[in-house]
Amino acid sequence: MSEKPMSVEINKITPYLWEIPKKGDMLVPGRIYGDEETIQSLLKDVEEKKGGGFTPAIVQVLNVAMLPGIQKASIAMADIHPGYGFAIGGVGAFDLDEGVISVAGVGFDINCGVRVLRTPLDREDVEAKKEQLANQLFRDVPAGVGSTGDIRLTREEIDEVLIKGAEFAVKTGYGFPEDLEYIEENGKVGNADPDNVSKKAKDRQFKQVGTLGSGNHYLEVQYVEEVYDIKAADAFGIRKNQILIAIHCGSRALGHQIGTDYLQTLAEASRKYNIPIRERELVCAPFKSPEGQRYFTAVNCGINCAFANRQAISHLTRKAVQHVFGIDMRDIKLLYDVGHNTVKLETHEVDGKMKKLLVHRKGATRAFAANRDEVPIAYRDVGQPLLVGGTMGTASYILCGTQKGMEDCFGSAVHGAGRAMSRERAKRQWRGEELIHELAEKGILIKSRSRAGVAEEAPGAYKDVDKVVNIVHNAGINKKVAKVRPLICVKG
Amino acid sequence: MLKGFIRSLGNTSMPYTYLDHDADVGIRASGASVEEAFEEGAKAMLNVMWDISTIEERRNVSIECEARDVPELFVEMLNEILFKQGVEELAVARLKIDEIKRQENGRYKLKGIAFGEPLDIDKHAVKTEVKAATYAGLRYEEKEGQHMVQCILDV
User: The complex's ipTM?
Assistant: First the structure.
């Protein structure tokens, strides 16, 4: 824990990129995307929390820079805020032989992510049946604390979900085979071993496939307000005024339990292998150690579980839209699905050579450029779509990856607006009922069974998403394609 | 009973507080014994998920866990409550700790019972799901017979 007073030296590289020089035990520099205001606010956190309290985000970036095997830099995206171990928005890539794997670099909601469906509907179509659609989605997609769905799995089927991910969901009738092409990793990562996932984790998953969960998770009906890049928008199949549906959720309790189980395992491993840990939560194991490999093959199960979950929710969503508008489910296409709490094997250029690395992204999205094999063929000329969630009352963005992003930050992107205020403060400042009323006046319907949950997620409790997106766009690491606005938001 | 930890007399309700943390929720609890501080900590976490005053104690589940030290035991305990109430589909209102014991191998073990009833989203005024208790901000202190424990919850 960082208890002693400290000062942080930080240099401006460009108006949108800052660097903390390598010093002391740091193996690489720290690099943070942000503007003057972002950095001032991060430094203020260090000042105010001197001598106690929680670890400020900037210190978390430095702590990650000290982990064995880290490559190039410990990076944070423009939506950086304090996390546990890693800062939210943190990206850390490690050498496979000398590097480590960390629970903190993934988080407890493994492969939490965003998926966007594109519909043939226009804004006017939804405006005419808004209440009806909102009610249908709220009824059909289980959301909220402890929510369970209608899907029941046997023990063998759970293992299959953990190995096959979205493919299992499609095979059992949830969606179409062509969906898989438009999911990161085609909806299924390898190196997944269900034997390394505890019985406890599997027990918790039994009824939770196809449920949203709560907190900042949501299902949102949006319209395209503005298109910035016509070529990319054409490739992604989106146009102005079109209705899109965004789904934000993760691996539910199974993922949480994998994180919890391995927190203790890796804490022991950190001590066993003498890894210098500056914050208790930043537990890790050498990637190639037995503990590291067990966690990696378990986390991959969590990743597959989240893909399957979003695939199942998509099916429920399509059915609801079909019911209300009478359109064919097959006409609701999957634009893309990408996670933002992940650890992956990827190939990147280091010192002029292509090298296989282990890349952690905690509250950061993969953002690969055009021509990478991982990008779906239909998008390969423009780059991978990135889905950046805003808040209930503000815009969300669709961006795409760039070559500069590949070179500077391992092809990564912001994942959302980033919180600016604690949930407790938000609840003191806003009342759920009033917010729902205010947003309704702005044309946004909120459906939630938790008034307190709505207050915690008040748009004012988040950073300005427009600003965050402009930083990464101007820094050249991600490129704006379109801006969307919410019409309906189903919250957990 | 853990050596040096003396239970306070009576059942004075000990306080817990929430700490400002941008993304997640920090909890801090105190008590005249480590058990009391832990029980208050459990309440603090449960009250993030729902209004614990709305829960009738009609069901109970046993809670058992162990860890290498007292702070990590606190996190294990919270995560065990999350696990048990998750699989049993319960809303838990409180935890009663029977004992916290240092075992021969040096590890700490906790035994207790959680009280609650089947989760009812409307009745229990649900708020936010806690995904996990984390080691972030984890602290345990004993000062003049007062025990304080804190950590950050991932929500």
Answer: 0.86
